[in-house]
Write a structure and sequence with these properties.
By secondary structure, the protein is an alpha+beta fold. The chain has helices at residues 78-90, 141-144, 149-161, 171-174; strands at 14-17, 23-27, 32-33, 39-48, 51-56, 65-66, 68-71, 93-105, 110-121, 132-137. It catalyses: a 5'-end NAD(+)-phospho-ribonucleoside in mRNA + H2O = a 5'-end phospho-adenosine-phospho-ribonucleoside in mRNA + beta-nicotinamide D-ribonucleotide + 2 H(+).
Length: 176
């Protein structure tokens, strides 16, 4: 978010030097700096044996499947978001979540915090925000996620985490 006006008093912000951060929007009335803040979002690769949970949400990508994802809510840890989003979008329970790293989507100002989780229990119960959801062979995931660059990076990390030694998972990338 790029602040132009103080969210506390509404006064137009001025730029003030913040030492190592450079020029930062500042409100002299409230004596407060307002740093640009990206929107944190969790991306979760849910794994069950040799399968991974993939979704179809055309408002994200028209021709690509994606991983479970969602925005981190106010007063919520990223880990809380991971459990909540998986439950809300899929109806299943997960366990053993593991942080895999982060990515930044500049044009959308998104900080993508990526996780891997193991399926624990439950049947898939698709939420209304999801068009399609099902388990896919993890070896096929990269080919099914043609438009989702962040998701593909997460799947590659998952393949590394599970000690994948095959080559089939990378077929789509080799053929480009």
């Amino acid at each position: 978010m790029k602040f132009k006006f103080c969210p506390l008093c509404g006064k137009k912000l001025e730029i003030r030097d913040s030492w190592d951060e450079g020029g930062v929007p500042y409100c002299s009335s409230d004596d407060m700096m307002f740093f640009d803040t990206p929107k944190p979002c969790a991306v979760i690769a849910v794994v069950k044996d040799d399968e991974i949970l993939l979704l179809k949400q055309s408002y994200i990508f028209k021709n690509s499947k994606v991983l479970v994802s969602g925005y981190v809510g106010t007063n919520e840890t990223v880990e809380d978001t991971v459990y909540r989003e998986v439950k809300e979008e899929t109806g299943i329970e997960i366990e053993e979540i593991k942080y895999l790293g982060s990515d930044f989507v500049k044009d959308k100002d998104l900080l993508m915090l990526t996780y891997m989780a193991k399926y624990k229990s439950g049947e898939i119960n698709k939420s209304s925000e999801v068009e399609w959801i099902d388990w896919s062979k993890i070896e096929d995931a990269l080919c099914e996620m043609s438009e989702d660059e962040v998701g593909k990076k997460v799947v590659k990390k998952v393949l590394k985490e599970i000690g994948y030694k095959g080559t089939k998972a990378f077929t789509c990338e080799i053929s480009r």
